Amino acid sequence: MRRLFVICVLATLATSCASIDTATGVRQVAKDIDVARAEGVDAGSKYEFEVARLYLDYALQLQGRGEYEMAKGYVAKAQQALVQAREQLKNNLKWQKVVEDKKAQASQPEGGVQP
Amino acid sequence: MTRNISLALVAMLFLSGCITSKELQKRTSALEHLLSENHEAMYICTPVELARATAYVDFSLNESALARPMTAKQFVDKAATASKEAFVGSRDSWCMKDRDGDGIPDDVDQCPDEPEDFDGFADEDGCPDPDNDQDGVPDGEDECPNEPGPVRNKGCPILDSDGDGVLDEDDQCPNEPGPVANRGCPWPDRDGDGVLDKDDKCPDDPGPVENRGCPYPDRDGDGVFDKDDKCPDEPGPPANFGCPYKTIEITESQIVLHQRVFFQTNKAVIMPRSFAMLNEVARAMTGHPKMIVRVEGHTDSRGRFNYNLKLSQARADSVRSYLIAQGVDPARLTSVGYGPERPIDDNATSAGRANNRRVEFHIVSQ
Protein backbone atom coordinates (compact mmCIF):
# COMPACT_ATOMS: atom_id res chain seq x y z
CA MET A 1 0.00 0.00 0.00
CA ARG A 2 2.83 2.29 0.97
CA ARG A 3 4.72 1.45 -2.21
CA LEU A 4 1.67 2.20 -4.29
CA PHE A 5 1.37 5.62 -2.61
CA VAL A 6 4.99 6.50 -3.46
CA ILE A 7 4.49 5.45 -7.08
CA CYS A 8 1.39 7.62 -7.31
CA VAL A 9 3.18 10.65 -5.88
CA LEU A 10 6.11 10.21 -8.31
CA ALA A 11 3.77 9.79 -11.27
CA THR A 12 1.86 12.94 -10.31
CA LEU A 13 5.11 14.90 -9.96
CA ALA A 14 6.40 13.71 -13.33
CA THR A 15 3.16 14.67 -15.04
CA SER A 16 3.14 18.10 -13.40
CA CYS A 17 6.72 18.80 -14.44
CA ALA A 18 6.02 17.82 -18.06
CA SER A 19 2.95 19.99 -18.04
CA ILE A 20 4.89 23.03 -16.76
CA ASP A 21 7.66 22.41 -19.32
CA THR A 22 5.22 22.27 -22.21
CA ALA A 23 3.25 25.30 -21.05
CA THR A 24 6.44 27.34 -20.87
CA GLY A 25 7.45 26.25 -24.39
CA VAL A 26 4.01 27.02 -25.77
CA ARG A 27 4.00 30.48 -24.22
CA GLN A 28 7.46 31.22 -25.60
CA VAL A 29 6.58 30.17 -29.15
CA ALA A 30 3.31 32.11 -29.01
CA LYS A 31 5.30 35.18 -28.01
CA ASP A 32 7.87 34.57 -30.79
CA ILE A 33 5.10 34.26 -33.33
CA ASP A 34 3.58 37.55 -32.24
CA VAL A 35 6.97 39.26 -32.53
CA ALA A 36 7.55 37.75 -35.98
CA ARG A 37 4.12 38.90 -37.12
CA ALA A 38 4.87 42.43 -35.91
CA GLU A 39 8.06 42.31 -37.97
CA GLY A 40 6.18 41.31 -41.10
CA VAL A 41 7.50 37.75 -41.27
CA ASP A 42 3.94 36.49 -41.86
CA ALA A 43 3.76 38.49 -45.09
CA GLY A 44 7.24 37.67 -46.33
CA SER A 45 7.43 33.96 -45.44
CA LYS A 46 3.80 32.92 -45.64
CA TYR A 47 4.38 29.16 -45.88
CA GLU A 48 6.86 28.83 -43.02
CA PHE A 49 4.95 31.24 -40.79
CA GLU A 50 1.63 29.42 -41.32
CA VAL A 51 3.32 26.08 -40.60
CA ALA A 52 4.74 27.49 -37.34
CA ARG A 53 1.33 28.82 -36.35
CA LEU A 54 -0.45 25.52 -37.08
CA TYR A 55 2.17 23.53 -35.18
CA LEU A 56 1.61 25.76 -32.18
CA ASP A 57 -2.18 25.29 -32.41
CA TYR A 58 -1.72 21.56 -32.57
CA ALA A 59 0.73 21.60 -29.65
CA LEU A 60 -1.98 23.37 -27.64
CA GLN A 61 -4.49 20.70 -28.58
CA LEU A 62 -2.08 17.94 -27.55
CA GLN A 63 -1.34 19.76 -24.31
CA GLY A 64 -5.07 19.94 -23.61
CA ARG A 65 -5.27 16.23 -24.08
CA GLY A 66 -2.40 15.63 -21.70
CA GLU A 67 -0.02 14.54 -24.48
CA TYR A 68 2.81 16.63 -23.05
CA GLU A 69 5.79 14.92 -24.70
CA MET A 70 4.11 15.00 -28.09
CA ALA A 71 3.15 18.66 -27.53
CA LYS A 72 6.77 19.49 -26.73
CA GLY A 73 7.79 17.96 -30.04
CA TYR A 74 5.38 20.22 -31.94
CA VAL A 75 6.54 23.25 -29.96
CA ALA A 76 10.04 22.48 -31.17
CA LYS A 77 8.79 22.05 -34.74
CA ALA A 78 6.99 25.41 -34.52
CA GLN A 79 10.17 27.05 -33.33
CA GLN A 80 12.12 25.51 -36.18
CA ALA A 81 9.56 26.68 -38.72
CA LEU A 82 9.79 30.18 -37.30
CA VAL A 83 13.57 30.17 -37.71
CA GLN A 84 13.16 29.08 -41.33
CA ALA A 85 10.56 31.79 -41.86
CA ARG A 86 13.05 34.43 -40.77
CA GLU A 87 15.82 32.95 -42.90
CA GLN A 88 13.63 32.85 -46.00
CA LEU A 89 12.19 36.30 -45.50
CA LYS A 90 15.00 38.21 -47.20
CA ASN A 91 15.04 36.07 -50.34
CA ASN A 92 11.29 35.74 -50.59
CA LEU A 93 10.65 39.47 -50.48
CA LYS A 94 12.76 39.93 -53.59
CA TRP A 95 10.57 37.94 -55.91
CA GLN A 96 7.24 37.97 -54.07
CA LYS A 97 6.43 41.45 -55.29
CA VAL A 98 6.92 40.35 -58.90
CA VAL A 99 4.50 37.46 -58.37
CA GLU A 100 1.97 39.70 -56.62
CA ASP A 101 2.08 42.17 -59.50
CA LYS A 102 1.49 39.39 -62.01
CA LYS A 103 -1.44 38.09 -60.01
CA ALA A 104 -2.93 41.58 -59.85
CA GLN A 105 -2.45 42.02 -63.59
CA ALA A 106 -4.11 38.70 -64.35
CA SER A 107 -7.11 39.48 -62.14
CA GLN A 108 -7.86 42.75 -63.97
CA PRO A 109 -10.77 42.42 -66.41
CA GLU A 110 -9.81 42.89 -70.05
CA GLY A 111 -11.17 45.91 -71.94
CA GLY A 112 -10.94 48.36 -69.05
CA VAL A 113 -13.58 49.44 -66.56
CA GLN A 114 -17.17 48.48 -67.34
CA PRO A 115 -19.93 51.04 -66.71
CA MET B 1 -26.13 -15.44 -27.21
CA THR B 2 -24.60 -12.53 -25.34
CA ARG B 3 -21.16 -13.93 -26.05
CA ASN B 4 -21.91 -14.10 -29.78
CA ILE B 5 -23.12 -10.50 -29.89
CA SER B 6 -19.99 -9.31 -28.11
CA LEU B 7 -17.74 -11.15 -30.56
CA ALA B 8 -19.62 -9.69 -33.48
CA LEU B 9 -19.21 -6.11 -32.09
CA VAL B 10 -15.47 -6.57 -31.54
CA ALA B 11 -15.09 -7.97 -35.04
CA MET B 12 -17.02 -5.02 -36.46
CA LEU B 13 -14.94 -2.50 -34.59
CA PHE B 14 -11.74 -4.24 -35.62
CA LEU B 15 -12.80 -4.38 -39.23
CA SER B 16 -13.94 -0.76 -39.29
CA GLY B 17 -10.63 0.25 -37.67
CA CYS B 18 -8.71 -1.67 -40.29
CA ILE B 19 -10.62 -0.14 -43.15
CA THR B 20 -10.32 3.39 -41.73
CA SER B 21 -6.65 2.97 -41.10
CA LYS B 22 -6.00 1.68 -44.62
CA GLU B 23 -8.18 4.31 -46.16
CA LEU B 24 -6.44 6.98 -44.16
CA GLN B 25 -3.04 5.68 -45.13
CA LYS B 26 -4.04 5.64 -48.79
CA ARG B 27 -5.47 9.13 -48.71
CA THR B 28 -2.53 10.48 -46.75
CA SER B 29 -0.05 9.00 -49.23
CA ALA B 30 -1.99 10.43 -52.13
CA LEU B 31 -1.99 13.89 -50.53
CA GLU B 32 1.72 13.67 -49.71
CA HIS B 33 2.42 12.77 -53.32
CA LEU B 34 0.29 15.64 -54.61
CA LEU B 35 1.96 18.17 -52.31
CA SER B 36 5.43 16.90 -53.11
CA GLU B 37 4.85 17.02 -56.88
CA ASN B 38 3.51 20.56 -56.83
CA HIS B 39 5.44 21.94 -53.93
CA GLU B 40 7.32 24.72 -55.78
CA ALA B 41 4.26 26.04 -57.59
CA MET B 42 2.13 25.93 -54.45
CA TYR B 43 4.93 27.49 -52.40
CA ILE B 44 4.99 30.42 -54.77
CA CYS B 45 1.29 30.92 -55.41
CA THR B 46 -0.62 29.36 -52.50
CA PRO B 47 1.83 29.18 -49.62
CA VAL B 48 -0.79 29.38 -46.84
CA GLU B 49 -2.90 26.58 -48.31
CA LEU B 50 0.22 24.49 -48.84
CA ALA B 51 1.23 25.07 -45.22
CA ARG B 52 -2.20 23.95 -44.01
CA ALA B 53 -2.24 20.86 -46.21
CA THR B 54 1.28 19.88 -45.12
CA ALA B 55 0.55 20.45 -41.43
CA TYR B 56 -2.79 18.60 -41.48
CA VAL B 57 -1.17 15.59 -43.18
CA ASP B 58 1.44 15.62 -40.43
CA PHE B 59 -1.23 15.87 -37.71
CA SER B 60 -3.22 13.08 -39.33
CA LEU B 61 -0.22 10.77 -39.32
CA ASN B 62 0.44 11.69 -35.71
CA GLU B 63 -3.15 11.01 -34.71
CA SER B 64 -3.02 7.66 -36.48
CA ALA B 65 0.09 6.81 -34.52
CA LEU B 66 -1.79 7.75 -31.35
CA ALA B 67 -4.55 5.37 -32.42
CA ARG B 68 -7.12 8.13 -32.88
CA PRO B 69 -8.58 7.30 -36.28
CA MET B 70 -11.48 9.71 -36.03
CA THR B 71 -9.26 12.71 -35.30
CA ALA B 72 -6.82 11.51 -37.95
CA LYS B 73 -9.66 11.39 -40.46
CA GLN B 74 -10.73 14.91 -39.56
CA PHE B 75 -7.20 16.12 -40.28
CA VAL B 76 -7.04 14.23 -43.55
CA ASP B 77 -10.29 15.87 -44.61
CA LYS B 78 -8.90 19.26 -43.75
CA ALA B 79 -5.64 18.41 -45.55
CA ALA B 80 -7.61 17.37 -48.62
CA THR B 81 -9.54 20.63 -48.68
CA ALA B 82 -6.36 22.70 -48.24
CA SER B 83 -4.53 20.63 -50.87
CA LYS B 84 -7.33 21.19 -53.34
CA GLU B 85 -7.24 24.95 -52.72
CA ALA B 86 -3.45 24.95 -53.02
CA PHE B 87 -3.54 22.94 -56.22
CA VAL B 88 -6.26 24.99 -57.89
CA GLY B 89 -4.62 28.27 -56.89
CA SER B 90 -1.23 27.29 -58.26
CA ARG B 91 -2.21 26.30 -61.77
CA ASP B 92 -1.53 29.71 -63.24
CA SER B 93 1.37 30.22 -65.60
CA TRP B 94 3.44 32.32 -63.22
CA CYS B 95 3.46 29.61 -60.56
CA MET B 96 6.45 28.01 -62.18
CA LYS B 97 8.98 25.76 -60.68
CA ASP B 98 12.33 26.90 -59.50
CA ARG B 99 14.64 24.64 -61.47
CA ASP B 100 17.87 25.94 -60.03
CA GLY B 101 16.45 26.01 -56.51
CA ASP B 102 17.70 29.48 -55.71
CA GLY B 103 14.35 30.60 -54.33
CA ILE B 104 13.62 32.82 -57.32
CA PRO B 105 10.78 31.31 -59.42
CA ASP B 106 11.72 30.47 -62.98
CA ASP B 107 9.19 32.94 -64.30
CA VAL B 108 11.11 35.85 -62.87
CA ASP B 109 14.53 34.18 -62.85
CA GLN B 110 16.69 35.50 -65.67
CA CYS B 111 18.93 32.45 -65.28
CA PRO B 112 16.50 29.65 -64.31
CA ASP B 113 19.21 26.99 -64.56
CA GLU B 114 21.95 28.83 -62.68
CA PRO B 115 21.34 29.57 -59.01
CA GLU B 116 21.75 33.15 -57.85
CA ASP B 117 24.83 33.51 -55.65
CA PHE B 118 23.24 36.03 -53.23
CA ASP B 119 26.46 37.91 -52.67
CA GLY B 120 24.79 41.25 -52.20
CA PHE B 121 25.35 42.31 -55.82
CA ALA B 122 22.41 42.27 -58.29
CA ASP B 123 20.74 39.39 -56.42
CA GLU B 124 17.25 40.09 -57.74
CA ASP B 125 17.82 38.84 -61.29
CA GLY B 126 18.42 35.21 -60.32
CA CYS B 127 21.71 35.09 -62.17
CA PRO B 128 24.98 34.38 -60.42
CA ASP B 129 27.58 37.12 -60.70
CA PRO B 130 30.92 35.38 -60.45
CA ASP B 131 32.79 38.60 -61.25
CA ASN B 132 30.73 41.53 -59.97
CA ASP B 133 33.06 44.25 -61.17
CA GLN B 134 33.87 42.39 -64.40
CA ASP B 135 37.57 43.02 -64.01
CA GLY B 136 38.49 39.48 -64.94
CA VAL B 137 39.32 38.52 -61.37
CA PRO B 138 36.72 36.05 -60.00
CA ASP B 139 34.94 37.36 -56.90
CA GLY B 140 36.39 34.56 -54.81
CA GLU B 141 39.90 35.81 -55.51
CA ASP B 142 39.01 39.48 -55.81
CA GLU B 143 39.86 41.52 -52.74
CA CYS B 144 37.67 44.33 -54.10
CA PRO B 145 34.83 42.41 -55.81
CA ASN B 146 32.77 45.52 -56.54
CA GLU B 147 35.59 47.76 -57.78
CA PRO B 148 37.44 46.84 -60.96
CA GLY B 149 41.16 46.37 -60.62
CA PRO B 150 43.96 44.45 -62.31
CA VAL B 151 45.01 40.90 -61.43
CA ARG B 152 48.39 42.13 -60.22
CA ASN B 153 46.61 44.17 -57.54
CA LYS B 154 44.31 41.29 -56.53
CA GLY B 155 41.37 42.85 -58.33
CA CYS B 156 41.55 46.14 -56.47
CA PRO B 157 41.86 49.46 -58.29
CA ILE B 158 45.26 51.07 -58.28
CA LEU B 159 44.91 54.40 -56.60
CA ASP B 160 46.17 57.82 -57.57
CA SER B 161 46.29 59.29 -54.08
CA ASP B 162 47.52 62.74 -55.07
CA GLY B 163 45.28 62.88 -58.17
CA ASP B 164 48.13 63.92 -60.46
CA GLY B 165 47.27 61.39 -63.13
CA VAL B 166 50.24 59.16 -62.25
CA LEU B 167 49.04 55.96 -60.55
CA ASP B 168 50.54 55.31 -57.14
CA GLU B 169 52.43 52.26 -58.37
CA ASP B 170 54.33 54.46 -60.88
CA ASP B 171 54.39 57.58 -58.72
CA GLN B 172 57.60 58.24 -56.88
CA CYS B 173 55.77 60.82 -54.79
CA PRO B 174 52.30 59.28 -54.38
CA ASN B 175 51.15 61.90 -51.91
CA GLU B 176 52.43 64.99 -53.73
CA PRO B 177 51.04 65.86 -57.15
CA GLY B 178 53.66 66.09 -59.86
CA PRO B 179 53.95 65.74 -63.63
CA VAL B 180 54.39 62.47 -65.46
CA ALA B 181 57.73 63.76 -66.77
CA ASN B 182 59.06 63.83 -63.20
CA ARG B 183 57.47 60.45 -62.29
CA GLY B 184 54.69 62.07 -60.33
CA CYS B 185 56.95 64.23 -58.19
CA PRO B 186 56.73 68.01 -58.13
CA TRP B 187 59.61 69.86 -59.75
CA PRO B 188 61.91 71.31 -57.08
CA ASP B 189 62.55 75.03 -56.56
CA ARG B 190 65.64 75.11 -54.39
CA ASP B 191 65.92 78.87 -54.10
CA GLY B 192 62.15 79.28 -53.60
CA ASP B 193 61.88 82.07 -56.13
CA GLY B 194 58.84 80.57 -57.84
CA VAL B 195 60.88 79.53 -60.87
CA LEU B 196 61.15 75.72 -60.93
CA ASP B 197 64.74 74.45 -61.03
CA LYS B 198 64.21 72.94 -64.48
CA ASP B 199 63.50 76.45 -65.80
CA ASP B 200 65.79 78.31 -63.41
CA LYS B 201 69.14 79.38 -64.78
CA CYS B 202 70.25 80.15 -61.23
CA PRO B 203 68.50 77.42 -59.18
CA ASP B 204 70.32 78.38 -55.99
CA ASP B 205 69.91 82.16 -56.24
CA PRO B 206 66.43 83.58 -56.13
CA GLY B 207 65.57 85.71 -59.11
CA PRO B 208 62.51 86.88 -61.01
CA VAL B 209 60.80 84.91 -63.74
CA GLU B 210 61.61 87.55 -66.35
CA ASN B 211 65.33 87.01 -65.69
CA ARG B 212 64.84 83.20 -65.83
CA GLY B 213 65.18 82.82 -62.07
CA CYS B 214 68.48 84.68 -61.83
CA PRO B 215 68.89 87.75 -59.64
CA TYR B 216 69.55 91.04 -61.41
CA PRO B 217 73.06 92.32 -60.75
CA ASP B 218 73.66 95.23 -58.36
CA ARG B 219 77.34 96.10 -58.69
CA ASP B 220 77.35 98.91 -56.15
CA GLY B 221 75.22 96.91 -53.71
CA ASP B 222 72.86 99.80 -53.02
CA GLY B 223 69.74 97.65 -53.45
CA VAL B 224 68.95 99.20 -56.82
CA PHE B 225 69.47 96.65 -59.58
CA ASP B 226 71.91 97.76 -62.25
CA LYS B 227 69.14 97.76 -64.83
CA ASP B 228 67.35 100.46 -62.80
CA ASP B 229 70.45 102.09 -61.34
CA LYS B 230 71.47 105.31 -63.01
CA CYS B 231 74.74 105.07 -61.12
CA PRO B 232 75.43 101.31 -61.04
CA ASP B 233 78.89 101.77 -59.63
CA GLU B 234 78.05 104.37 -56.99
CA PRO B 235 75.71 103.42 -54.18
CA GLY B 236 72.71 105.70 -53.91
CA PRO B 237 69.18 105.59 -52.58
CA PRO B 238 66.37 104.17 -54.71
CA ALA B 239 64.66 107.56 -54.49
CA ASN B 240 67.55 109.03 -56.45
CA PHE B 241 67.62 106.10 -58.95
CA GLY B 242 70.57 104.53 -57.20
CA CYS B 243 72.71 107.65 -57.46
CA PRO B 244 74.19 109.41 -54.45
CA TYR B 245 72.82 112.84 -53.54
CA LYS B 246 75.35 115.46 -54.58
CA THR B 247 74.08 118.57 -52.95
CA ILE B 248 72.05 117.31 -50.03
CA GLU B 249 72.24 114.80 -47.24
CA ILE B 250 69.35 113.23 -45.33
CA THR B 251 69.86 112.92 -41.58
CA GLU B 252 67.34 111.86 -38.95
CA SER B 253 66.02 115.37 -38.42
CA GLN B 254 66.96 117.37 -41.51
CA ILE B 255 67.62 117.46 -45.18
CA VAL B 256 71.00 119.09 -44.95
CA LEU B 257 72.00 121.29 -47.86
CA HIS B 258 75.63 121.33 -49.02
CA GLN B 259 75.09 124.70 -50.64
CA ARG B 260 73.01 127.72 -49.83
CA VAL B 261 69.77 128.62 -51.56
CA PHE B 262 70.44 131.80 -53.45
CA PHE B 263 67.80 134.55 -53.77
CA GLN B 264 67.82 137.85 -55.53
CA THR B 265 68.90 140.62 -53.11
CA ASN B 266 66.09 141.66 -50.75
CA LYS B 267 63.66 139.49 -52.75
CA ALA B 268 62.12 136.02 -52.45
CA VAL B 269 63.01 135.03 -56.01
CA ILE B 270 65.19 131.86 -56.16
CA MET B 271 68.29 132.15 -58.33
CA PRO B 272 68.51 129.49 -61.12
CA ARG B 273 71.80 128.16 -59.82
CA SER B 274 69.95 126.76 -56.80
CA PHE B 275 67.43 124.87 -58.91
CA ALA B 276 69.53 121.70 -59.23
CA MET B 277 69.89 121.42 -55.46
CA LEU B 278 66.19 122.05 -54.82
CA ASN B 279 65.34 119.49 -57.51
CA GLU B 280 67.36 116.98 -55.53
CA VAL B 281 65.41 117.90 -52.38
CA ALA B 282 62.17 117.34 -54.32
CA ARG B 283 63.40 113.90 -55.52
CA ALA B 284 64.40 112.96 -51.97
CA MET B 285 60.92 113.80 -50.73
CA THR B 286 59.32 111.87 -53.58
CA GLY B 287 61.48 108.90 -52.60
CA HIS B 288 60.31 109.18 -49.00
CA PRO B 289 56.56 109.48 -49.47
CA LYS B 290 55.79 109.67 -45.75
CA MET B 291 58.27 112.42 -45.00
CA ILE B 292 56.78 115.73 -43.80
CA VAL B 293 59.08 118.73 -43.94
CA ARG B 294 59.03 122.19 -42.48
CA VAL B 295 60.85 124.79 -44.67
CA GLU B 296 62.44 127.43 -42.48
CA GLY B 297 63.63 130.85 -43.65
CA HIS B 298 66.29 132.73 -41.62
CA THR B 299 68.03 136.14 -42.01
CA ASP B 300 70.92 137.95 -40.38
CA SER B 301 70.32 140.74 -37.91
CA ARG B 302 70.91 143.68 -40.17
CA GLY B 303 67.92 145.91 -41.03
CA ARG B 304 64.55 146.08 -39.40
CA PHE B 305 63.30 143.09 -37.56
CA ASN B 306 59.83 143.06 -39.11
CA TYR B 307 61.22 143.44 -42.57
CA ASN B 308 63.58 140.51 -42.01
CA LEU B 309 60.76 138.46 -40.57
CA LYS B 310 58.58 139.06 -43.63
CA LEU B 311 61.48 138.41 -46.03
CA SER B 312 62.36 135.10 -44.39
CA GLN B 313 58.69 134.00 -44.53
CA ALA B 314 58.46 135.01 -48.19
CA ARG B 315 61.64 133.08 -49.05
CA ALA B 316 60.49 129.98 -47.16
CA ASP B 317 57.15 130.20 -49.00
CA SER B 318 58.99 130.60 -52.29
CA VAL B 319 61.05 127.43 -51.69
CA ARG B 320 57.87 125.51 -50.66
CA SER B 321 56.17 126.62 -53.88
CA TYR B 322 59.15 125.54 -55.93
CA LEU B 323 59.10 122.04 -54.38
CA ILE B 324 55.32 121.77 -54.95
CA ALA B 325 55.95 122.72 -58.58
CA GLN B 326 58.38 119.81 -58.73
CA GLY B 327 55.63 117.40 -57.71
CA VAL B 328 55.80 117.28 -53.91
CA ASP B 329 52.39 117.01 -52.21
CA PRO B 330 51.57 120.43 -50.63
CA ALA B 331 50.22 118.68 -47.54
CA ARG B 332 53.72 117.45 -46.77
CA LEU B 333 55.27 120.91 -46.69
CA THR B 334 54.94 123.82 -44.31
CA SER B 335 56.94 127.04 -44.41
CA VAL B 336 57.95 129.34 -41.55
CA GLY B 337 59.99 132.60 -41.52
CA TYR B 338 61.94 133.22 -38.34
CA GLY B 339 63.79 136.37 -39.41
CA PRO B 340 66.92 136.90 -37.32
CA GLU B 341 65.55 135.02 -34.30
CA ARG B 342 67.62 131.82 -34.71
CA PRO B 343 71.17 132.68 -35.74
CA ILE B 344 73.71 129.89 -36.09
CA ASP B 345 76.77 132.16 -36.34
CA ASP B 346 78.10 135.53 -35.28
CA ASN B 347 76.17 138.44 -36.82
CA ALA B 348 79.16 140.75 -36.14
CA THR B 349 81.21 139.28 -38.97
CA SER B 350 80.46 139.14 -42.63
CA ALA B 351 81.02 135.36 -42.81
CA GLY B 352 78.82 134.80 -39.76
CA ARG B 353 75.98 136.84 -41.21
CA ALA B 354 76.25 134.93 -44.50
CA ASN B 355 75.82 131.71 -42.59
CA ASN B 356 72.81 133.08 -40.76
CA ARG B 357 71.04 133.93 -44.05
CA ARG B 358 69.79 130.48 -44.87
CA VAL B 359 66.97 128.08 -45.69
CA GLU B 360 66.63 124.85 -43.70
CA PHE B 361 64.55 121.72 -44.25
CA HIS B 362 63.46 120.15 -40.93
CA ILE B 363 61.94 116.68 -41.03
CA VAL B 364 58.78 116.75 -38.88
CA SER B 365 58.06 113.06 -39.39
CA GLN B 366 58.89 110.22 -41.76
What can you tell me about this protein's structure?
The complex is a heterodimer of chains A (about 120) and B (about 375). The radius of gyration of chain A is 22 Å and the shape is elongated. With about 120 residues, chain A is mainly alpha-helical. Chain A has one domain (about 20-100). Chain A has 4 helices and no strands. The longest helix of chain A is centred in the last third of the chain and has 40 residues, at about 70-105. Chain A has helices spanning about 1-40, 40-45, 45-65, 70-105. Mean pLDDT of chain B is about 90; it is low at about 5-15. Among the domains of chain B are: about 20-90; about 245-365, 2-Layer Sandwich (60s Ribosomal Protein L30, Chain: A), CATH 3.30.1330.60. In chain B, α3 runs antiparallel to α4 and α5 packs across α6. With about 375 residues, chain B is α+β, with helices and mostly antiparallel strands. Chain B is rod-shaped and about 165 Å long. Chain B is about 35% helix and about 10% strand. The longest helix of chain B is centred in the N-terminal third of the chain and has 36 residues, at about 1-35. Chain B is built from 7 helices and 5 strands. The interface of A and B includes residues 54, 102 and 106 of A.
